[in-house]
Each structure stands twice: as C-alpha cells, then as structure tokens.
Task: inverse folding
C-alpha cells in the first residue's frame, strides 16, 4: 500500500526530535586523527608496499606512464593486505558511466584454486582490468549488446578507498570505463585526457615566465547545493521518488521572500545529518569544510577545500553517493535535482577552477610583485578568450533535463554564457585594449597597477551572483553547473578549451618573437589583441534582466534555453574540431556522447510525463471529484430548502473546479497525442524536440490547473504532501 499524506505527516509528528545518532569514534577525536583513514594514501602505501614499488607507483602517477604487470601484482598484494586488515572481504572497480552516477561491481577476494583449495587473492590483473557486464550502461551505440564487452581499467592517479555500507566493507578501485577498442564510455577518460592536454599546453607558456615549471595541474573546488526532506514525506510524493522533483505542488504562501533561511541556524535534525556526512567524508579523505543554509527553505550547501581536478571529481561523486546513504540513516532524503520545487531557488554546483604549477603557483592569482603579473594576465586573458571562442561547448556540457529548469528561467545563471571579471579587472583590460600600440609604457603601467590593487577589490569580485562564469579573485567560478551533474563534463571542457587557447597563444607569441619583437612586448601585443576580440563575452551587468537577452543577441552570443538545442553544437564543426584537435574524444566517441546525452534527456522527460499522467488520474482527480460531489450535494440540498440565495460561494468554487478539470482533460488529451508523436519520431533529436516543445508545455498547463485546485479542494481530501509541509518541517 502506498503511503498517504496523513500517514506521512503522522510519522514525522511522532519522530523524536532532535535525533541523536552515533557518528562513531569521531565524537571526541579531532578530524585530523581519522581524516583519510579509509584511503590507500601516503601512509598506507608506505606501510603496505615495498619501497621500490611505492616509488615506482608515485613516479608512474606523476608521469602518467604505464605500470608493469609485475609491479601491479605487488601493489595489488599491498592493497589487499591493507584492505583485509580493515575488514574488507570484497573489492570493486568503481567507475563513472555516462549516466552521471557511479557504478561498482563487487567481487570477493575469496576464490578456489583448480584443486579445490579456498584462498584469498587479489592479483595485479584483477587490479588493472575487469570486465563488468556493462551492457546496460549507455554507450550511444558504440557497443551493441551482443558484443557488450566494456572494460574498467585502473586509474592509479586517484587513490583506492574503502566504502563502508552498514557492516560491509569493500575495497574500491577508481577506474575508467572503455570499450573493447579502448573508446571512452565514461566521464573519466576524457577528463584525464584533458588534464594531460592542458598540462602539455600550459607548461611551455609558463616557461615564458619561469623555466622551473615542468607541470601544470587543473584544480577544482566544488560547492554542492541540495535540499533535504523528511523520508516519510518523500515517500508520500511519488513524483519525487520517480523523478527527483515535484511535478505538481502549489507554492506555499511563504517561501523565500523573507530570506530568513540563508545562513540561518541549522535545524538540529539536519545538523546531525551533516555531522554524520562530514565524518564519513573525512574518513574517505574528502576535505569538506564549509556547511550552511542556502537561500530556499530546506536547502543547504557543502563545500570542500579544492583539490587536483581528477581527485576533486571523484570526491564529489563519492559525496553525492554518501549523502543519499547517510540521509536515509537519519530518516531524511537528499534531493540533488536542480529544481525539486517550483517557485523557490533551484540547486547548482559552482565549480571553482584554476591551474597550479609544480612550483606552487596559482596561475590565476594576481601577485604583489609587478614582474609576476604578466603571467597572471596571460592566463587570465586566455581564459576569457577561451570562453569567448568555445562558449557553446561549455553550454552543452551543462545541458541536461534538470538544469533546463534553472538556466534561463529567471533565477540562477542564464543560458547565455558570459564572463564577469569585476570592476577592477574590467577597467584594467580596457586600459590595455585601448592603449596605443606605440605606447607600451602605458600598458606596462596598467599591469603594474594589478599589484597595487588592494586585495579587497579583487576578492570582492564575487558580488555579481547573476553571472554564469565569474572571476573570484584567484580562480574562475562556473556557476551554471547543475547540482546533480558529474563535474567531469564541464571540467573536461574547461581544461580542453584552455589547452587549445594556450597553444594558439604560444604560437602567436612565437610568431612575433621570431621576427625580432622582444618577448614581453610580444606577449602584450597578443593579449591586447585577444582582449579586443573577446570583448563581447565580458558582461558586468544583471544577467537576469531582459535587456541582457537583447544585448547578448546584438553581441552575437547564443542563448540556448533548452537541452536539445544546446547539445546541437556537438554535431557541428566547432565541437568536432575542439574534441578532435585536442584528442579528448574522437569522432565516434563524440557522436556516442551526444547520443547518450539526448537519450538521457528523452528518457527523463518521458518518465516525467508518464508519472504526471498517473498522479493526475490516480491521486488528484479522485480527490477533486469527491469534493466536487460534496459541493454539488450541498448546492442541491440548499436548493431543496429554498435557500438559493446562500449558495454563491459553493457555486463559485464548483465552477472553478469544473474549469480546472476541463483544462486538465484538454491538457491530458494533447499530452497523449504528443507522446504518441514521440513514438513515431525518426530519431532521438526529433523525440527530444517533441518532448521539449510539445509535451513539456502541456505538463505545465496541467500543473497550473492542478495547483489551482490544490488551493480550493478540502485539505482533508488532498492526497499529496503540500509544499509547506515538505519545505517547512516542524
Ligand atoms: P565562496 O565562493 O562561497 O565565496 P570561497 O571563495 O571561499 O567560497 O571558495 C569556494 C571554493 O573555491 C572552495 O571549495 C575553495 O576551496 C575553492 N578554491 C579556492 N581556491 C581555489 C583554486 N585555486 N582552485 C580551485 N578552487 C579553489
Ligand atoms: Mg562560490
């Protein structure tokens, strides 16, 4: 039997509050004493690996070189020893298929020899490569199911860890997921490729300024937003359970107008959940550090200290997994969807991105020494130029069904990609761009100015919260990423666009110096040229305004307001060259990636439409009809008593019910017709188009009518948990 609204409300009424949970040994320990205890990190490696194996592994990770089979055996053995001492019985290759979630297939260490002896083993072969039955993962047609072999291959650059689920402990090995032919079918392989591509492109540029630089890594610090609701209420909302968002629901009269939730005190139940989540995260080496209430009621944020990009991506994926698991322990549910509730803010995942060198320099950090600022300016301007050129590809990397409810929907970042750099930098770039070619002293003066800017001014660039892409003092913050997304998608694009841009920059500078221009002068000339070209992408104003839409159009910036349109670029020359030249994805991989993204969109919308139809028929309308009958009976009874004068109210309500019911009926009819068309579409792109432009609008019409009914039908009849109950728990 399904859980009814009143059952659910009763359940939370009787829930002990606050809930106290045993969060393990951490209670009185410092975080440092257990941080990373479930990770095969430095200490564990030193303890469980022979010294030469430890050094070879480290060297291989640094250089990206292949490990020998013999070495893999030694490492596997050390890993097994460590894991068994910690109580693991199984190991798993952990990977990130294009579903956006994580996947794992467990095998036990226990096995039988050919002569029937029971042993526990973990070979180098099992560590390095596995063949999960991956036929059900999206591959965009790269593998047909009869040749479904997909392989997971160890990624030594992300450390192995132990996943604890209840009493069970599993050694997890981070891997990439590829076809038999080695083509990427996950988010990780393109990310790893983009990382080394950026490294190769950025080092020669760094060496223009400092010959000691021989490695550049991309860094990522994500900020994860999420909602939390009570589990019983969640279970009484089939739409939340099926689609991750509410398909119906009248906004509560109080939502976020008072802005009293943002940074407010954290409710005790949520606080217990957060502490538990943090402990679990810290054990896994996820450096979460910040927690606070977000703008919408029942919305929160968690953020870590930034890390090297590959590890940061893994940690975010792990965290999302932990959140869902830990929440259940607390009889709560975490909603990672971008827009679980209409009328209040949605959830994003800001991706703070920068680059660091082996010499410990953040390449996007302006310094106090004027001599260093030409380097800062170089990386800064090249980032702006890269976004200018490849904005459409960045837009595609954040396009998915959930994010369509945020981007361009008059809250959070718009679908138009632009860059906000703050007043101080904006002025400076203007001075450089307008400086006369003959007067490079003026430009140099402008650069010297960077070092004289008070820190405050640069740090405060964060103030424009409406921008999808903002410079925040020493990093760029990509704010348009969706809360449920794997960061690897947009981060791969960032690394790649930067790599391509830096290669071009180096070539442009070389061209000038080979003709005898002094290097500093050449760099300045090239940057000046870039600033002039990239100017249309710089926008300091209010991104939510209608004027910006107009202005952006005049500037030639695209505004793709839905996923199918935003993804179209993936089949165009721009993307083919972008991914092809950089080697991040070949033509087959790119096409498959595009198909998988479209397929995900189509599937999600189809599920949403079907869930809505079912909810309307089996939940909403029966309640509406009952109340309608009651009203009609009342009117008839009053008439029988000759009290026609006193039935005005009843009649008005009845009329409103009938009007809404009529709209619902019409909406459902059109919805069915549109869904029928989807089944007869020729390809995924056409299906996506119909779902987006025919099905979705009908869903909105039906929703409006149902939400109006919610406001007039007897509360005792209304079967779905209301917004105020979900969002404002006692
Ligand atoms: P907010 O954006 O809320 O003001 P902060 O600016 O303090 O918060 O930091 C947001 C995130 O940016 C954190 O995860 C932080 O670790 C990360 N961050 C800081 N410096 C860098 C960097 N050089 N590269 C990548 N991320 C960074
Ligand atoms: Mg931020």
Result:
């Amino acid at each position: 039997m399904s859980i009814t609204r009143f059952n659910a409300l009763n359940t939370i009424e009787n829930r002990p509050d606050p809930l106290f949970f045993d969060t393990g040994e951490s209670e009185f320990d410092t975080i440092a004493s257990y941080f990373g205890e479930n990770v095969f990190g430095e200490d564990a490696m030193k303890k469980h690996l022979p010294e030469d194996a430890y050094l070879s592994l480290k060297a291989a990770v640094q250089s990206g070189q292949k490990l020998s089979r013999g070495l893999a055996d030694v490492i596997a053995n050390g890993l097994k020893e460590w894991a068994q001492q910690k109580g693991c019985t199984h190991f798993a290759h952990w990977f990130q298929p294009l579903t956006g979630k994580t996947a794992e297939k467990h095998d036990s260490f226990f096995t039988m020899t050919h002569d029937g002896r029971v042993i526990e083993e973990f070979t180098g072969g099992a560590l390095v490569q596995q063949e999960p039955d991956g036929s059900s993962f999206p591959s965009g047609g790269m593998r047909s199911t009869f040749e479904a072999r997909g392989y997971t291959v160890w990624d030594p650059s992300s450390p192995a860890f132990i996943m604890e689920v209840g009493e069970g402990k599993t050694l997890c090995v981070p891997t990439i997921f590829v076809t038999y032919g080695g083509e990427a079918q996950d988010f990780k392989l393109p990310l790893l490729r983009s990382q080394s591509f950026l490294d190769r492109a950025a080092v020669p540029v760094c060496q223009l300024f400092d010959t000691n630089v021989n490695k550049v890594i991309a860094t990522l610090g994500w900020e994860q937003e999420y909602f939390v609701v009570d589990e019983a209420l969640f279970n009484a909302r089939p739409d939340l359970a099926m689609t991750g968002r509410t398909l119906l629901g009248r906004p509560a009269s109080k939502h976020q107008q008072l802005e009293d939730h943002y940074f407010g005190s954290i409710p005790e139940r949520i606080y217990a959940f957060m502490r538990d989540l943090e402990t679990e995260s810290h054990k896994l080496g996820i450096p979460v550090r910040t927690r606070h209430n977000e703008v919408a009621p029942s919305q929160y944020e968690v953020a870590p200290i930034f890390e090297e990009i590959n590890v940061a991506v893994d940690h975010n994926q792990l965290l999302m997994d932990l959140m869902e698991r830990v929440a259940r322990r607390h009889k709560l549910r975490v909603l990672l969807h971008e827009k679980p509730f209409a009328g209040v803010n949605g959830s994003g995942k800001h991706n703070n991105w920068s680059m660091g060198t082996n010499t410990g320099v953040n390449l996007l950090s302006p310094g106090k020494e004027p001599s260093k600022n030409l380097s800062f300016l170089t990386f800064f301007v090249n980032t702006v130029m890269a976004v200018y050129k490849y904005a459409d590809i960045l837009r595609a990397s954040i396009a998915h069904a959930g994010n369509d409810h945020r981007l361009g929907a008059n809250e959070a970042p718009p679908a138009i990609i632009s860059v906000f750099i703050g007043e101080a930098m904006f002025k400076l770039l203007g001075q450089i761009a307008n400086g006369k070619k003959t007067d490079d002293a003026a430009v140099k003066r402008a650069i010297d100015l960077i070092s004289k800017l008070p820190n405050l001014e640069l740090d405060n660039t964060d103030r424009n919260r409406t921008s999808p892409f903002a410079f925040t003092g020493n990093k760029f913050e990509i704010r348009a990423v969706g809360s449920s997304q794997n960061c690897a998608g947009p981060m791969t694009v960032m690394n790649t666009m930067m790599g391509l841009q830096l290669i071009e920059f180096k070539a442009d500078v070389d061209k000038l110096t080979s003709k005898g221009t002094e290097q500093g002068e050449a760099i300045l000339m090239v940057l000046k040229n870039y600033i002039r070209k990239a100017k249309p992408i710089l926008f300091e104003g209010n991104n939510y305004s209608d004027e910006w839409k107009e202005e952006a159009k005049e500037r030639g910036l695209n505004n793709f307001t839905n996923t199918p349109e935003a993804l179209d670029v993936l089949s165009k020359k721009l993307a083919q060259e972008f991914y092809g030249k950089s080697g991040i994805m070949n033509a087959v991989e790119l096409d498959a990636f595009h198909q998988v993204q479209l397929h995900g969109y189509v599937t999600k919308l189809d599920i949403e439409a079907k869930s809505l139809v079912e909810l309307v028929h089996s939940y909403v309308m029966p309640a509406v009809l009952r109340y309608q009958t009651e009203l009609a009976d009342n009117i008839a009874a009053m008439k029988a008593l000759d009290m026609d004068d006193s039935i005005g109210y009843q009649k008005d309500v009845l009329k409103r019910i009938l009007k809404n019911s009529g709209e619902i009926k019409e909406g459902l009819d059109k919805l069915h017709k549109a869904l029928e068309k989807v089944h007869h579409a020729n390809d995924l792109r056409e299906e996506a188009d119909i779902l987006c432009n025919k099905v979705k609008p009908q869903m909105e019409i039906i929703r409006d009518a149902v939400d109006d009914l919610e406001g007039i039908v007897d509360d005792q009849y209304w079967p779905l948990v209301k917004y105020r109950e979900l969002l404002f728990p006692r």
Remarks:
- The mean pLDDT is 90.
- Residues 587-640 form the longest helix (54 residues).
- The pocket of magnesium ion (ligand 2) is lined by residues 223, 350, 477 (CB under 6 Å).
- The chain has 24 helices and 16 strands.
